[in-house]
Amino acid sequence: ANPAAVRAVAADIAARHADLSVLINNAALQYPVALTDPDFDPLQMDAEIAVNLLAPALLTHAFLPGLRRQGMGTAIVNISSGLALLPKQRTALYCATKAALHSFSQSLRYQLETDGVAVIEAILPLVETPMTAGRGSGKISARDAAEAILAGVRCARPEIHVGKARLLPLTSRLAPGLSRRMMRGS
């Protein structure tokens, strides 16, 4: 959540690993408190935005020179969420940061399309992690999510929809209202 620390770590890694070929932006922070809740702490907004959007952008910027120099076979993988496409009611800011990461991934893909650097977005369902402990059911394991992401990266798919998130593009087209209602309360 500390942009200066992110920049420092990125510079250190870039200097020590000039041959780095894949960057995976996988950190996330979600406070499951609605902005309308009297207990909502506005300082949490800074942390959520810093971890979910600013850190991936800073890391990407720091590693771009090396990735572009190497060209073909390099990749930036941004870990996103189905909530980027269909937000839920309780976590508006988290959903907004994931939607921003989705847009960032698309724009960056356009910027790098002639440089040989693949920009891949992994759109995940609810995954069993410390962040999601005690929340929801039907989670997939972190191992299953990682295996699906790696399989998608090997196939060079620009968007990897994992688990139940594979249904989102189809259900959004066929029954957009139903999809929004289902995700809203998830």
Structure described in brief:
The protein has helices at residues 3-16, 43-70, 92-112, 142-154, 168-174, 176-184, and strands at 22-25, 74-81, 117-124, 127-128, 140-141, 159-161. With 186 residues, the chain is an alpha/beta fold. Helix 2 (43-70) runs parallel beside helix 3 and helix 5 (168-174) crosses helix 6.
Backbone CA Rg: 17 Å
CATH C-level class: Alpha Beta
Contiguous uncertain segments of 5+ residues: none
Query: Termini, distance in Å?
Result: 26 Å
Order of strands, main sheet, comes to 1-2-3-6
Series of H and E elements: HEHEHEEEHEHH
Would you tell me the overall average pLDDT?
A: 90
Describe this entry's structure for a reader:
The chain has 186 residues and is of the alpha/beta class. The chain has one domain (3-184): Rossmann fold (3-Layer(aba) Sandwich). The chain is built from 6 helices and 6 strands. It has helices at residues 3-16, 43-70, 92-112, 142-154, 168-174, 176-184; strands spanning 22-25, 74-81, 117-124, 127-128, 140-141, 159-161. Strands 1-2-3-6 form a 4-stranded parallel sheet. Strand 1 (22-25), helix 2 (43-70) and strand 2 (74-81) form a beta-alpha-beta unit. Helix 1 (3-16) runs parallel beside helix 2. The protein is globular, with a radius of gyration of 17 Å.
